[in-house]
Amino acid sequence: MAKDNFKIECRAQGIPATSLTSEQALQWVLEEEQFWAGFPALDAPVIVGNQNYGNQNILSSYRNYLANLRQRLQANDHEALRSFMDEAGQLRIVIAHGQLGGSIRELLKQNDATAAQRLVLLFSEAITTPREEIRRELVSLKVALRFNPLIQTTADTVSASHALKSAKVSEARVLELKDELNGDITEIKKGLEDFVDAKRKELEALHEQYETYLVLQGPSRHWKRVALSTSRAANIALGLFVALLATPAIFGFIYWDGISKYIDHIIDMTKGGISLASLVVFTVPVLAYGWLLKHVSRIFTQNLMLSSDAEHRRVMAVTFLGLAKRKSVGIAEQDRALILNALFRPAPTSPQDDGPPSGLLELIKK
User: Fold this and answer.
1) Do residues 350 and 212 share a domain?
2) Could you report the per-residue pLDDT of 118-153, keeping only the tens digit for each?
3) Is residue 162 part of a domain?
4) Does 171 reside within a domain?
5) Is residue 336 a part of any domain in this protein?
6) Measured between alpha carbons, how far is 213 from 117 in angstroms, rounded to an integer?
7) Between β-strands 15-20 and 47-48, what pairing exists: parallel, antiparallel or unpaired?
């Protein structure tokens, strides 16, 4: 409880323990004053046993007492309110907010001012002191009321009611918190399951990507080496083919005098006719040289084709790996099968090697 808060409690009159701020406590006391200002019938002359004892100044006594109490509360005097509650607990002050105040209010509504006046006089010894004659006349009534089972059990009833009310509020709050907690647990559980599911899918995708990388990384490197080696062999074959073509022309240009004399000598020997020996001398070297050029060109075309195919396979493998890394690009199983079939298709066939000629006719055919 805060330092400036005031505590009110009077179980004897049905008021449970309550903590009030300074403003609330002043308002509470002001309402008590207003109660005693609203029922002038309580200040009617007291008549007991056909004897009129005059006005006992009940209302003014309560208003003066409560006005003084309010001033002390404004000065933050906790002891004044505590003393007021102690006197009320001993049934020496009537609290308008309590059960006695409620009973007095009901009696006045029923126009039974005499009974209400008697009730105030019986339980207001700390506020007003009636004459001795009045007290003697009311003593039996006071004893009967004080030992009334309803009055004696008021404190227990108020405590039980207050405890029951607090228990119901606590139970409702506990159920509300339980529902909130269950909702939070369900939400957290669902979020955790979604997180685990997402991470599992990511791990599966990474695993699949890694397996694909392992499957294609080796072939990709192999095709790169094949492309480089076959390209180098094709360049060598092309250079050799060009050299073989240029060599006869260069040799003929350098040694043209000797070659022309040899041709004239052969013509003189045949005396203008056709000789099989002279035909063999000219055709066999030419055909053999042509066969050599043919195979050199075959080596060039074969290696050029293998180099292009290897480079094409390598590009497909690298492209497939790049697509597999991107989540936005979905690769279905049928697409994967098509790509893998294209990557691992058989190598392109090369022309069958004819081999060297086995005779003159075969050499002439070639």
Assistant:
1) yes
2) 888 888 888 887 777 777 766 656 665 655 544 444
3) no
4) no
5) yes
6) 103
7) unpaired
Structural domain span for residue 318:
198-365
Inform me whether the pLDDT recorded for 72 exceeds 60: yes
One domain, residues 203 and 349 = yes
Q: Which residue has the tokens 């009967």?
A: 144
pLDDT digits (tens, 9 = 90+) for 322-338: 766 666 556 667 766 77
Is 73's pLDDT higher than 60? yes
- Per the structure, the count of domains in the chain is 2
Which of 337, 353, 335 is CA-nearest to residue 345?
337
231 and 322 co-located in one domain:
yes
Q: Give the integer Cα–Cα distance in Å for 110 and 108.
A: 5
SS (H, E, C) the chain: CCCCCEEEEEHHHCEEEEEECHHHHHHHHHHHHHHHHCCHHHHCCCEECCEECCCCCHHHHHHHHHHHHHHHHHCCCHHHHHHHHHHHHCCCCCCCCCHHHHHHHHHHHCCCHHHHHHHHHHCCCCCCCCCHHHHHHHHHHHHHHHCCHHHHCHHHHHHHHHHHHHHHHHHHHHHHHHHHHHHHHHHHHHHHHHHHHHHHHHHHHHHHHHHHHHHHHHHHHHHHHHHHHHHHHHHHHHHHHHHHHHHHHHHHHHCHHHHHHHHHHHHHHHCCCCCHHHHHHHHHHHHHHHHHHHHHHHHHHHHHHHHHHHHHHHHHHHHHHHHHHCCCCCCCHHHHHHHHHHHCCCCCCCCCCCCCCCCHHHHHHC
Band of residue 6 on the pLDDT scale cut at 50, 70, 90:
confident
pLDDT of residue 295: 83
